[in-house]
Amino acid sequence: MMFINAKDIKFNENFEELLGRGTMDIANVSAIVGGMINEIRIDKNSALKSHIAKFDNWTPTSDEDLKISTESMEHAYNNIDDKLKSALHLAYDRIKKYHEKQKPKSWFDTEDNGTILGQKVTAVDSAGLYIPGGKAAYPSSLLMNVIPAQVAGVQEIVICTPTPDNEPNELLLAACHLCGVDQVYKVGGASAIAAMAYGTETIPKVDVITGPGNIFVATAKKMVFGDVNIDMIAGPSEIGILADDSANANHLAIDLLSQAEHDEMASSILITPSQKLADAVKIELENWLVKLPRQEIARKSIEERGAIIVTQDMEEAIKLMNDIAPEHLEVATLSPFELLPFIKHAGAIFLGHNTPEAIGDYVAGPNHTLPTGGTAKFYSPLGVENFMKKTSIISFSSQAINEIGEECALIANSEGLTAHEQSVRVRLK
384-406 pLDDT, tens per residue? Predict the structure, then answer.
């Protein structure tokens, strides 16, 4: 783990390394992914089956094998523990309630001369949601992607998830039943992105693709963007923590590890003006690490991608964290809301000593699909608007076009577009 003081001579060099944490070597996999996408576009289901055999260790014998039945989803839902079922329902209700408040509305504005201007907001017809599988499956990610699409009013929702050895994750299937989805396909990686972007004999083409994934998924999303819309290019998970002396070192240590256990490439960064707190967190990290079932993953993440930075004051700490623009940002200080106006860049902000990042992953309500690698400087969390589009509305009366039509025609004339000019002039009195 990187332990550095902002006063260190080599601080700028070390900090630049942290800023580059989200860099994905997309160039190295682009040729592979591009080839896979092209195969799906040409050979469709045939290529899908070949890719599944290669990467997921089973071979579909028919097109129907690609789809997960609604009966198996219902069976999985009926067989999960009642307490867990109740927890999933709680999460569903809270996520839905939060996202319903996000839904944009159409609007119209009428001027005295009869001009009507407005904006019509419409859901896309179809959405493709990628839900990771393999080493781990995340029903929470399914809820976070399906619910905003449903709130937006998307009529056709398509889900792709890898199923190694043809063994779908039962909890993921239960979440599918809870959400009421009926199109779930056993396809993962770049193959799934290509299938949803261009369609096959079984998987329909969609308008927008959302959801997290590895570098192959991220590269595929980048390559199909423009043929379909996407949410963002997401990299490994990360957490940043701003803390002062009022913070509990034991709590901060496990919060840092909550992201480290995701992936060896995950980043966990604490910035504090308190040397005492930094030293205490360092000790608590080791105390927690030996207890974690995913210790090997978390340890590699902390050792290679983690950092504790001690600053001169909280103002400097906030400046550095804004430069990092973390996916998740915890503010563990005595008066966190006082710092909020100065925090500019983060995917999600967790304020106060009783708000661990994990509460946002599952039941708080806001979406946990967030920008990573510093892209919180220009990306937003996944939300209802990702599944909607805006259309401008324009209506002019005779009076209205006569009032400003001459100016319009003049500008058109200055651009040398005669038909534009005359299409206005023929309407002028």
Answer: 999 999 999 999 999 999 999 99
